[in-house]
Amino acid sequence: MSDGIGLAVSAVIFALRPHRESGEQVLHLPLVRRLRAPFDDHWALPGGWVDEAESLADAAARTLEATTSLRPAYLEQLYAFGEVERSPDARVVSVVYWALVRSEEVARTRVGQNVRWFAADDLPTLAFDHNRIVDYALWRLRSKVEYAPVAQSFLGETFTLAELRGVYEAILQRPLDPANFRRQMAASDEVEPTGEFTTTGRHRPAQLFRSKAAPTAPSPWRAS
Amino acid sequence: MSDGIGLAVSAVIFALRPHRESGEQVLHLPLVRRLRAPFDDHWALPGGWVDEAESLADAAARTLEATTSLRPAYLEQLYAFGEVERSPDARVVSVVYWALVRSEEVARTRVGQNVRWFAADDLPTLAFDHNRIVDYALWRLRSKVEYAPVAQSFLGETFTLAELRGVYEAILQRPLDPANFRRQMAASDEVEPTGEFTTTGRHRPAQLFRSKAAPTAPSPWRAS
DNA sequence: CTACATAGAGTCAATATGACTCTTATCTGG
DNA sequence: CCAGATAAGAGTCATATTGACTCTATGTAG
């Protein structure tokens, strides 16, 4: 075989949280403070070593829950990073996943001293090549949201079209026309109306929708 | 660390070759005959173990050249396959790449007893989970050709639009309207006319084109 | 009851796409 | 040397999609 090569998994976990000042929904991700060298005291993506008895995806879900106690609504492999000098001293190949978690789930979570949420567009300098990894994950999320039904994973079982549009706007960082958004969703077969309506705050009640086709898995699985 | 986990690379290498009967251009890929257990005597994707001193992409290119002596015009990571029971007895994680090689390059290559080209849509039962991997690579190639300039990698420095269209037709397995294809290519900024023309066979000479934007790398690199 | 805000439907011009026609340039067979 | 045959390359037309915009319905707050 080969070896002397460490095999790790990490995850870029996205959630929507209100920005501390503006209050707008903004993409955030949880980072973990490193407690040993290399990059002692730097922030890093949650992750860990792959167990011999678990698949890569299982390892990603496990380490993600162990470090942040989050359970994602969507999980997909991002890329395997395998440059030689990614980590000083050791050779490490990281299979990185990206994940989306619902806002409810975020609230449920206690984050301690060593886990903290950061706005995705305003990160400190991270350990290893993790800044680059986050950039790539962001690019992938923003691309994928345009052609695949992933945005729903940020929301609960049912949601209004305005809420869903808010998710798209937060991801794409630009306003979308409500009427056109509604039309595209109606045509796209991604959501379906439940009969129910919001017993709303102060405006006309909005109909609740639910996702139709469950967000499809990565796609190696589509082939099977 | 972890370990006891073998880290391998494999490659799905596509080239266009005339189908043995119909003579049409068809996607082919080279497979390697296994000479030991497990799956002794089965055909498998070319690959090998990752060296401690080389990146994943380098390992893919090296093992690919070592087993098939092909040098690809395009190489991109496909997926990291890491199910527990992929390989009997051992635990192996395979980072799989997919590649495109020019037809010239194919001709230049001697393939021996233990390396053979197969039509991509008509494969035998392969070792490990390699059939599934090929299916996924095919899906990826067919998707990607619709929005990224990868088809050029099958051709040489210059080519006519008819040749390029032939590549698309072979990949997508459906005829494309010549006039519409020309229009889209003109609009797409992917190719540019050289001034030269084919000193043709028996018809009106066609202008030669070359690719404009070099086929972009995977995209973790676009972010940097 | 009035003002206001969002839900949701509809209009219109610009653009992209598929199917098709027409002209031009070359080779081949008589 | 001329008459097909064939592909190159330009152009036409009906249709679908998209962005920008308008209009009406239905709730709450005062």
Written account of the structure:
Two copies of one chain form a homodimer. Chain A has five helices and nine strands. The longest helix of chain A has 15 residues, at 130-144. The first copy, chain A, has two domains: 5-144, Nucleoside Triphosphate Pyrophosphohydrolase (Alpha-Beta Complex), CATH 3.90.79.10; 157-211, Arc Repressor Mutant, subunit A (Orthogonal Bundle). With 224 residues, the first copy, chain A, is of the alpha+beta class. The relative contact order of chain A is 0.16. Helices cover 25% and strands 28% of the residues of chain A. In chain A, a hairpin with a 6-residue loop joins β1 (5-18) and β2. In chain A, the strands form two sheets. In chain A, strands 1, 2, 3, 4, 5, 6 and 7 form a seven-stranded mixed beta sheet that branches. Chains A and B meet through β1, α1, β5, β6 and α3 of A and β1, α1, β5, β6 and α3 of B. The structure holds a DNA duplex (30 and 30 nucleotides).
